[in-house]
Amino acid sequence: MQSRTSAPRATGGRPRSATADAAILEATRAALVELGWSKLTLGDVATRAGVAKTTLYRRWAGKNELVVDAVAELFDELEIPDRGSLAADVEGVVLQFAVILARPEAKSGLMAVIAESVRDDALRARIRTSIVDRQKRLVLEGRARAQVRGELPPETDLKESARTADLIFDVIAGTVVHRALVSAEPVDTDWARAFAKLLLNGLTASATA
């Protein structure tokens, strides 16, 4: 699958190497698995990737930004499946998301940068642009498909449409991350189906079903 990763742009000098970037991000994920967040260093990543440490510093300001981009590339693997209905599509993407979150490099990397971002506004902004904003495509694609099927009405107010897309993303991503990484509970087919039903029908319909 073609990567949607948008790594930082070079500010001058020789052109960026896509091959070097891919090797660096892969090495970062390998280091997260083997060493964990606390022991990961840019020097170790450079050695694993076969590049000079200065190469990393020309691309990323530090470990936080590097890990965000390495984790963001994992989430680019997500696709909204076409399973015939909006509920089934939501269920499918939730299960995909849970599989990625179960990977050690995603689990340790995401939790670490979220914790660091509490006191780092620039890092929080990078998480939003590299992960959150990029993955909102899933909500937009799923909603557009449901509109074509006649499951959802067309959007007429662009501002309200964007606000609703943000809310849908926050509900899905926040719930699955909390379930998988905070509560450490399984995100299996039964849970994903129940979640999709609650998301689409709302609390009142769920309680009376």
Description:
Helices cover 72% and strands 0% of the residues. By secondary structure, the protein is mainly alpha-helical. Mean pLDDT is 89; it is low at 1-14. The protein has helices at 18-35, 42-49, 53-59, 63-75, 86-101, 104-117, 121-149, 158-182, 189-208. Helix 4 (63-75) crosses helix 6, helix 4 (63-75) runs parallel beside helix 7 and helix 5 (86-101) packs antiparallel against helix 7. The N and C termini lie far apart (40 Å).
Which term fits the overall shape? elongated
The whole-number mean of residue pLDDT values reads 89
Strand content: under 5%
The count of β-strands is 0
Contiguous runs where pLDDT drops below 50 for at least 5 residues: 1-14
Helix-strand pattern, N to C?
HHHHHHHHH
Q: How much helical structure, as a percent, in the residues? A: over 70%
- Sheet with the most strands? none
What is the terminal separation in angstroms?
A: 40 Å
